[in-house]
Amino acid sequence: MLFAEKKENSDIISYAKSVLTYTLFSESDQNNEYDLAWNGNGFVFIPIYPITYIVDEAFYNRLFTILNLALTPQYTLIRPLTMQVITLDDRPANQARGLLIPARLGKPQRLSGTITKLSKLTIDRTSIPIMDILSWDYVKSPHAVITGVSGSGKSYFLKYLFSICSLIGDVVAIDPKGSDLARLAKRKGKQIIMPEFLEGEGNNSIGGKFLQDVISALKQIEETMYQRQSSLYQTTLRISTDYRELNQKPIFIFIDELSALLTGAPKKIKEDFQNLLIRLTVLGREAGVYLILSMQSARAEYVPTIVRDSISLRIQLGRINSENTRFLFPELSEMPMVPLGGKGSGIISIAGDERYAGIEPVLTPTIVD
Coil, strand or helix: which one is 45? Predict the structure, then answer.
């Protein structure tokens, strides 16, 4: 088995080198100025000094782009957010460093099953399965944002997360449209915040009064957040700790179509809401308060930059282009390759978790009722 694995690695390295031969360099002699290896975490491009080419961010991006398509579907390459340089202690001085292109063997597979079945795929209660090779640890990587145009599978994935989170902790649904999320929360008997007109009463349209109601509800959660932080400070002797030491459940706040929530609201109320979002995202992790936001585009007028920067799980579904990607993934200089999988396909990044080094394809789960 070990021999077969070594031969397979040798074959793929030879193939990858042949791919680079005519595409990476302008001079054929430069192909003798590097080596390529597999280290278990990805492919390592090793310059053999002295070299006649410049190794910089542009070179690294070009290397990734060439290998990404050539190695699919045998490997899934992960687009790093920055150039990854590693040291190689077992090589001579002129080969003692390399460029790591993170990769996984095989291609991601979409999960499918009932909510009960999918919720059992994790060995603890802090991870939510997303694909067969990927899960979201919301304690390590707090808060989430999901973007995508209509028909991309955004609302479907939001319902999946809501169903799983309702089994783990307390959930709150904020739905300005009274659509899928509100109906799911109603079925499960969970707290819903939506305009009064959806219940056939009042004149509480999407805008100022409704947003004030949302702010009022979120401030109650904010107060709970401060109480938990106070209890932790007064009772624990640990330096690093969180709400679990108090035997408290996490609180997940789901906000669907955030841009619609802000439509028609006065500037002052918008500012109050956005300042509240900032406090919840920056201070919520230790107290177990997590935001899950959904919208078509994570524009700065909807999501303050400090909020977006504090969100660890970022998913964009559906059409991927520079216009709608630059808000959620400003690090991307080139468009990534997205799996052809219909609704619920796109790209994902999970910050704060060492298992996931950058941006990679995603196929969100299929729920079987």
Answer: strand
Distance between CA atoms of residues 176 and 178, nearest Å: 6
Q: How far is CA 210 from CA 179, 198, 234, 277, in A?
A: 16, 11, 37, 16
pLDDT > 90 fraction of the chain, expressed in percent and rounded: 49
Residue 111's closest CA among 102, 103, 122?
122
Shortest CA distance to 198 belongs to which of 169, 175, 221, 230?
Answer: 175
Helix axes 154-168, 180-188, angle to 10 degrees: 20
User: What is the pTM (predicted TM-score) of this model?
Assistant: 0.87
Helix ranges (DSSP H) in 22-133: 57-71, 115-119
Task: Dihedral sign for Cα 165, 108, 40, 94, please.
Answer: negative
Which helix (H) or strand (E) segment holds residue 72: the answer is none
User: How far apart (Å, rounded) are the C-alpha atoms in residues 160 and 130?
Assistant: 10
What is the average pLDDT score of the chain?
87
- Give the three-state DSSP class for 314: strand
* Tokens found for residue 237: 């002797």
More confident residue, 7 or 46: 46
Could you give the CA distance from residue 40 to residue 291 in angstroms, rounded to a whole number?
34
Euclidean distance between the first and the last CA atom of the chain, given in angstroms as a whole number: 41
**DSSP per position, 214-228:** HHHHHHHHHHHHHHH
Residues 6 or more apart whose Cβ sits within 8 Å of residue 101:
42, 43, 44, 45, 63, 64, 67, 77, 80, 84
Q: Which residues contact 135 (CB under 8 A, 6 or more apart)?
A: 121, 122, 127, 128, 129
Q: Does the pLDDT value for residue 255 go beyond 80?
A: yes
Instruction: Find how far residue 237's CA is from the centre of its chain.
Output: 33
Q: Could you read off the pLDDT of 210-224 as tens digits, one per residue? A: 889 999 999 999 999
Tell whether the model's pLDDT for residue 330 goes beyond 80. Answer: no
> Which parts of the chain are beta strand (E)?
34-38, 42-47, 75-77, 79-80, 85-87, 97-105, 112-113, 127-131, 134-137, 144-148, 170-174, 191-193, 251-255, 289-295, 313-317, 345-350, 358-363, 366-367
